[in-house]
Please model this.
Amino acid sequence: MATLSNKMNAYDEMLKGIWRDNPVFVQVLGMCPMLAVTNSAVNAIAMGLATFFVLVSSSFLVSGMKAIIPKQVRISIYVIIIATFVTVADYTLLALFPAVHKELGAFIPLIVANCMILGRQEAFASKHSVKFAVMDAVGMAGGFLLAMFALGSVREILGEGKLFGISLFGENFEPWVIMILPPGGFITLGLLLLLFNWVGERRKQFLAQVAAVD
Model:
């Protein structure tokens, strides 16, 4: 029973980052890359996967080393750990996908300054076991990746009439150029936040009705 309970708690930690505590749609974190590099689905996924790798890897290492990290310098050590994995992600992307790396520019190194990543090390990874830290990181990074893809795909579809470079509407489609410009990022993010909150409220109302019937 204890093992089953631990598994359920671990999965809860993962799922909360995808929905209940989504870092973008609920906590409104990581707005800089969200708005800057989501003019296409490919760029959005590349940034999301890089962030996923950095967050999961750094959470694993911080949680595993928490007993030997001095409290007085813990933030500095967290930043060094995060920067190490960011460097790995940066050079891997440069070696394998140079065109995408060029598109993302300085925003890959700036993952070091992503408050979501450092915040998870301080608030969660440094206080929990490796298993729970990794599951929490997978959930948070997965939620961030999902939000990045949603924003990037909507902007690319409306702004260019394409998805992953594949034309969807033919030659007669008139692209909404504003959607691939900075204002389009703000507009799309606002609409997605509205949709996410509306779905959340509807879910709460449904659960309340079910509880009342029971």
About this structure: The mean pLDDT is 85.
